[in-house]
Amino acid sequence: MSDEQPARQPQGAPAALLNGLAILESFSIRRPALGVTEISEIVGLHKSTVSRMLHGLAELGYVQRERDGGRYRLGLSVLELSAPLLADLDIRDAGLEYLEQLTEVTGETSALGVWSGTGTIVVDQVASPHQVRHTQPIGNRYNQWNSSSVRVMLAYQPMKTVCELVDGGLIIPPRGGLTHELIQNELDEIRRTGLAMNKGFTTPEEFGVAAVVRDLRGAEIGCVILSAPSSRVELNDSAEDLQEAVRKTANDISARLGAPVMSENG
């Protein structure tokens, strides 16, 4: 590969366009900031060519120079370019195929929920193929603390808001009641693990697990919910597998929506 040739060159594409795209594609999550020499080595272009093209890309807002002047990062124009695509990807559009995969893999009912401010509302569902199953009908609203979909969304609300919802009866507490300390401890654990569980808390025969879905900004806009009969989960010893499947599905939908990469546990 010569000094003036990018790594790939589809036929009929102008060289300048390909070079510019190659430079933009050299940035990644692992390489968010790069200098001219680094980019030159990655894309196989001479440093003078890279420098000239970076100057043009910076003028258009596709890259920006760091304050020390030595390295570049992607600019906001890249985000603006993707905005029309991302605007069309709401949680239902992005999530359905992943729900179908989740139900196919686990054999249990999967659903998407969004937070209404006082509860979780189901906006999509793929029912289990089993005759004995738990369902999450579209339009159902959950406002019990014991519901995994409620607690997983509350975990990312301000503590003051959560306490007001519980104290005001908008979120129905468990029979034993809730102290603010118990609320804090449980929500801390959900944020730590990235999952909320319902191990027969709402009804003795229900097993549920939920994980949040994030959007382009990293905001928690909804959740993936899986429901199954407790007896089947116990018989198959499948609780851990179901938890990991839900976590993966939530991460996959978040990635489809352009969410920033989070830690393994959310």
UniProtKB/TrEMBL annotation:
Keyword Transcription: yes
Residue stretches making up the HTH iclR-type domain: 14-76
Any one of the GO BP annotations: glycerol metabolic process
SMART domains, sorted: HTH_ICLR
Endpoints of the signal sequence: none
Gene3D superfamilies: 3.30.450.40, Winged helix-like DNA-binding domain superfamily/Winged helix DNA-binding domain
GO molecular function: DNA binding; DNA-binding transcription factor activity
InterPro entries tied to this protein: ArsR-like_HTH (IPR011991), GAF-like_dom_sf (IPR029016), HTH_MetabolicPath_Reg (IPR050707), Tscrpt_reg_IclR_C (IPR014757), Tscrpt_reg_IclR_N (IPR005471), WH-like_DNA-bd_sf (IPR036388), WH_DNA-bd_sf (IPR036390)
The keyword Endoplasmic reticulum is annotated on this UniProt entry: no
Matches recorded under Pfam families: HTH_IclR, IclR_C
Chain's role: May be an activator protein for the gylABX operon.
Record's protein name: Glycerol operon regulatory protein
Species per Swiss-Prot/TrEMBL record: Enteractinococcus helveticum
